[in-house]
Amino acid sequence: MTEPLATGATIGILGGGQLGRMLSVAASRLGFQCHIYEPGANPPAGHVAATVTTAPYEDEAALTAFAKSVDVVTYEFENVPTAALDLIESHCAIRPSREALRVSQDRLTEKTFLQDLGLKTAPFADITDLTSLEAAIEKIGTPAILKSRRFGYDGKGQVRLKSPADTASALAEMKGAPAILEGFVDFSCEISVIAARGPSGEVACFDPGENVHKDGILHTTRVPANIPAALRTDAILLAGRILNALDYIGVLGVELFVTPNGLVVNEIAPRVHNSGHWTQNGCTVDQFEQHIRAVAGWPLGDGKRHLDVEMLNLIGDDVLQTEALAKQPNTALHLYGKADVKAGRKMGHVNRILGPAS
Ligand code: AMP
Q1: 214 and 233 co-located in one domain
Q2: CATH number of the domain bearing residue 160
Q3: Residue pair 10/70 in contact by the 8 Å Cβ criterion
Q4: Whose CA is nearest to atom 15 of ligand 1?
Q5: 113 in a structural domain
Q6: Are residues 167 and 20 in the same domain?
Q7: CATH number of the domain residue 51 falls in
């Protein structure tokens, strides 16, 4: 796929959650149609997309029909099975590329890739059994975090080790899943860069946001991040290096720790990112439109920040405050249309406008 997609073309999206929903809204504003592929029933993205395929990622006939019906395929989550991607790719381009997925799906591959690029990460070691964990603790020390190499998100698949006495219990909690041990990073704050790259190599990054997590889940993102201007520039430059190294097409989220020794990369996400939701009300072109533009081969838009914004996630019961939130001034509500309220489930978010960009 080399030519930009014409308006009216169809963008296939793997995954039908809130990110797929907001991508579909952005795509429709540019005149595209979206076709969602999602195994679960009644996906939030299905409410706003033109077409939905409800089928498992093992259904070869459904995957083939999906891939043949769209002009490009993108995804809203990184754990799509490899065999499904192989099949789709035999019919249609996938953007961002398979390489971006391969690198970010596995924490060990990801950290190795980042270090090879010359970027700082937490010290880490591959853990396969008790012996390798004991050796890693000897080298890295405690406190430390044992993380599953794959399928971890929102703090899931992670166990903290306060001291070497926690070794056996932490390993038992991993239930045999391949893991890495990470040294604990003593950070002053967490920030993220939402970065976009088009097929021609053009790059546009949003202003870094400052993130606060609660129980491993993103709670708020605030822009501007309360860090020196030089660090903001460092963050953007390192995101650009990651994009170039992956020959990336689309939007990528880069999560960073701010430490006295500079920026340490926590992880990268090859997709639009929760910590970029503030762009919907803070910028002329938001992260969702930027991603759609990139995968469609259109010029990237102007992502300059016009406002100071705080994004607040509505998790579980938080969504019951909707009526009160709807009455608040300078507050934009974004709800995902999820029928069941469950603890820890992302139900929506609000963007609070704090004032003109400072
Ligand atoms: P992750 O799923 O890797 O993004 O981790 C979720 C959250 O746990 C991060 O946003 C941090 O707040 C914290 N965390 C993860 N890894 C580390 C680390 N190596 N050192 C300190 N805090 C961490």
Answers
A1: yes
A2: 3.30.1490.20
A3: yes
A4: 266
A5: no
A6: no
A7: 3.40.50.20
Give the tokens for residue 298.
């259109």
Structure token pair of residue 54:
């409800």
Site to substitute for ligand 1 among 145, 160, 192, most atoms within 8 A of C-beta:
145
State which residues form the domain around 290.
Answer: 189-356
* Series of mean pLDDT values for 10-residue runs along the chain (358 residues): 91 98 98 97 96 98 98 94 94 95 94 98 96 95 95 80 92 91 97 97 98 94 97 97 98 98 96 98 98 98 97 96 96 95 96 97
Ligand 1 centre distance from Cα of residue 327 (Å)? 35
Residue 144 CA, ligand 1 centroid: distance in Å = 10
Per-residue tokens: 155: 């703090």
Identify the residue whose tokens are 């039908």: 16
Does ligand 1 lie within 6 Å of residue 267's CB atom? yes
Count structural domains, the chain: 3
Strand intervals (E) in the chain: 10-14, 33-38, 51-54, 72-75, 124-127, 144-148, 158-161, 179-183, 189-197, 203-205, 209-214, 217-223, 250-259, 262-269, 307-315, 331-335, 346-356
Q: Which residues contact 59 (CB under 8 A, 6 or more apart)?
A: none
pLDDT for 154 equals 67
Residue 54: predicted pLDDT:
98
Q: What gap in Å lies between CA 338 and CA 346, rounded to an integer?
A: 9
Is 299 in the same domain as 243? yes
Q: Render 51-91 in DSSP notation, one character per residue.
A: EEEE--TT-HHHHHHHHHH-SEEEESSS---HHHHHHHHTT
